[in-house]
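User
Here is a favour to ask of a fellow structure person. I am asking you to supply a protein in sequence and structure-token form. Please set it down just below, with no commentary around it:

Assistant
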Amino acid sequence: MLTDLPNILTLLRIASIPVLVVLLSVHSPTANVIACVVYTAACITDYLDGALARRWQQLSELGRMMDPIADKLLVGSLLLALAGLTQLPVYSLYAAIIIMIREILVSGLREYMASQRETLPSTRLAKWKTGIQMVAIGFLIGGDGAAEMLGLSFLPATLIGGIFLWLSVIPTVISGWGYLTAGLTRIMAGQSRKSSKISF
């Protein structure tokens, strides 16, 4: 049900996106700190919605579909906003491009497989990928200005965020390749079964 708490938390994660984009557009350390707080809360809902759904036995196809979509919307929107605001250091714009390409390819593959009544379950590596990306984006949202405002001027937050974004490319590419090969294998197996039935 859409009104189940886990699904509401997922919807809140999606609802936080325009708030975060507006805060980033303000270009002030105070707004960046607030954005970090909102973003941290959104990331916590990513853990809570799945944990609560399992504990309360509220697992559903709707929730299973919405959760990865919410993650992709959050990560993708913030990467685009940070790129547009030129807040991606150490050539990490290219890391963001790789991440976006992977997400679009996997989403397209999942959509096609759903039309063939096949599924592509999430892997542990993909969850690590999302976690590293979220840490990277958190540092990039705050930036050096927020670090200085919090008395952490020694912390190169923007540089750390850029490095973590590049690190996230490793599980991004590996998990993406795993999804692609698994998806193609299932599609080919499904087509073979259909051909066998027709022959018979």
Observations:
- The CA atoms of residues 167 and 194 lie 42 Å apart.
- The chain has a mean pLDDT of 85.
